[in-house]
Amino acid sequence: MTSTMTVDELERAVTRIFRRAGMNEIQAGALARVIAAGERDGCKSHGIYRIEGVLRTLKAGKVRGDAEPTLEPGAAGAIVRVNARGGFSNPAFELGLPTLVERAREHGLAAMAINDCTHFAALWPEIEALTAHGLAALAMCPSYAAVAPAGGAKPLLGTNPLAFGWPRPGADPYVFDFATSVAARGEIELRRRAGQRLPEGWAIDAEGNPTDDPEAALAGAMLTFGGHKGSAIATMIELLAGVMIGDLTSPEALEALGTTTLAPAHGELILALSPEAFAAGRPGDPFARAEALFAAIKAQGARLPSERRYAARARALAEGVALSADERAALGRFEELGLDAVA
Predict the structure, then answer these.
(1) Is 46 annotated as catalytic?
(2) For residues 317 and 334, what is the distance between their CA atoms, to the nearest angstrom?
(3) 45 an active-site residue?
């Protein structure tokens, strides 16, 4: 049996849960917004499902629920640096966003490095926050070692998500957000809970053998999409969003955390680019040219990334977010018990 909540009601409910667990308003509000966005957009692997992991990580003392992120002094020019102060990445991004937008408009491009953060969320809300300002954007971060490199048999890389967005005046932005593993780790966990097998090529077991068993996959390693190509992109993310910004790589994050059952601590890199600045002095309007490309793609019967997500969003805004009885019960349990609701 399902019931519905408005997106605002869900956001308020999740905020109450995190406040009940001892988080300050800065942390609780930012996390609630991104979790509500996951449910709103039909992405269950980044919605209510993530609350339990947040609470476990908080209870284990691996993240600061009272953290107040700060803009780091001395980061000039096109680089914006935000220290999450041991809290979650989401409030750190929200703090740095206005400065990132300002620097991107000033210089044509700018980068935000978020350090000392815990990460658990989808990247598309951050990308959309930048496309709403007319900027193209990329975001990336490591995770913890759970993915085998191409040709390898042991966890080394993270799921290492990468997201890209292009602003579309008068239309939903072009946004693509994906894990460099074949699937997000949360997708495997949801299939485990549902008693479902995995598609071929998603994972290997602890001995390096292909498996369709979610339990064996979680004990073994996930695989990158596209074989060596996905492996190379995942490695690039380790370098750019870990090594280059002076933060943890996925193996280092796992070593510091000691488990894959909690949200990992590392850094994040976000790039913002001004299409007008890059196209200045060249013929044609960059936004009009982009629309011609999108129209040509759709003329072949193909869909653009995020179209299903935008359709789910429209339904949720009009009809509410559909929640199962188990999900409603979980929300009530988390709000009533706080940290006592998790082991």
Answers:
(1) yes
(2) 24
(3) yes
Confidence of residue 59 (pLDDT cuts 50, 70, 90): very high
**Class at the top of the CATH hierarchy for domain 67-181+224-276:** alpha beta
Q: Regarding predicted confidence, which is higher, 185 or 68?
A: 68
What is the pLDDT at residue 254? 95
Q: What pLDDT score does 45 carry?
A: 86
The residue from 39, 126, 187, 238 that is catalytic is 187
The reported pLDDT for the residue numbered 185 is 80
Q: What is the sign of the dihedral through the CA atoms of 260, 261, 262 and 268?
A: positive
Domain segments of the chain as ranges: 1-59+307-343, 67-181+224-276
Predicted confidence (pLDDT) at residue 162 exceeds the cutoff of 90: yes
Considering the candidates 45, 102, 189, 291, report the single residue annotated as catalytic: 45
Say if residues 62 and 120 touch (Cβ distance below 8 Å): no
End-to-end CA distance of the chain: 27
CATH architecture, range 1-59+307-343: Orthogonal Bundle (1.10)
> Do residues 273 and 104 make contact, with C-beta atoms less than 8 angstroms apart?
yes
Which one of 11, 39, 46, 274 is the catalytic residue? 46
Alpha-carbon span 131 to 175, nearest angstrom: 9
pLDDT at position 184, please? 79
**Stated pTM of the model:** 0.93
